[in-house]
Specification:
Length: about 190
């Protein structure tokens, strides 16, 4: 049985999902926010991002589902790609892990459409993430809504919403390997 007008919004963090919740509602959807991010490292960082997502969803009266934290799943899937640069194959695998789990949850919940807030970042490849989303949707008989949330000042709007709620603002994408990249840049200054 399909639940009408509901959409599963995979959320990578509170900041990135702030405006997508609003935009999806404007489009006639009722988003169910799904927080599944086994890539986030360390656990303290993960917990800060979960709390930010809770704050956002509570302030917007939006249902939030927090999936089990499974860092072992992430590390197993990216094994052999640890030295890949940011935006490389390891990131593609990470998008696949999170979107696939989101699709599985949508299917189990009777929600026929899913999307992700990841694409609001100007650092993420909308076309690539959309291709991954379409492939996964096809695998499960679902629809993937490819919407570039950063368009029409979406990135600016999401930051304004996040700032107004005083959401935690991370300084790296999330995984252990993006921390490594940031530490190199900090040490070079």
């Amino acid at each position: 049985m399909t639940v009408k007008n509901k959409i599963l919004l995979h959320a990578c963090c509170g900041i990135c999902s702030s405006y997508p919740i609003f935009q999806l509602r404007e489009m006639g959807y009722e988003p169910i926010v799904y927080f599944y991010n086994p890539n986030i490292y360390p656990i303290e960082e993960y917990n800060k991002r979960v709390e930010a997502e809770k704050t956002l969803c509570n302030s917007n009266n939006c249902e939030l589902v927090i999936a089990k934290y499974e860092p072992d799943v992430y590390f197993e899937k990216v094994k052999g790609f640890e030295q890949e640069p940011e935006h490389g194959k390891r990131c593609d695998i990470c998008f696949e892990i999170r979107l696939r789990k989101s699709a599985q949850y949508a299917l189990k919940s009777g929600i026929d459409t899913f999307t992700t807030s990841i694409v609001i970042s100007p650092h993420k490849n909308f076309k690539l993430i959309s291709e991954i989303g379409f492939k996964i949707a096809n695998d499960y008989g679902l629809k993937y809504l490819a919407i570039d949330f950063k368009k029409k000042d979406g990135f600016l709007k999401t930051n304004k919403i996040a700032n107004s709620l005083k959401l935690y603002r991370q300084n790296y994408c999330g995984c252990k390997f993006s921390v490594r990249k940031e530490e190199k840049e900090w040490n070079a200054v």
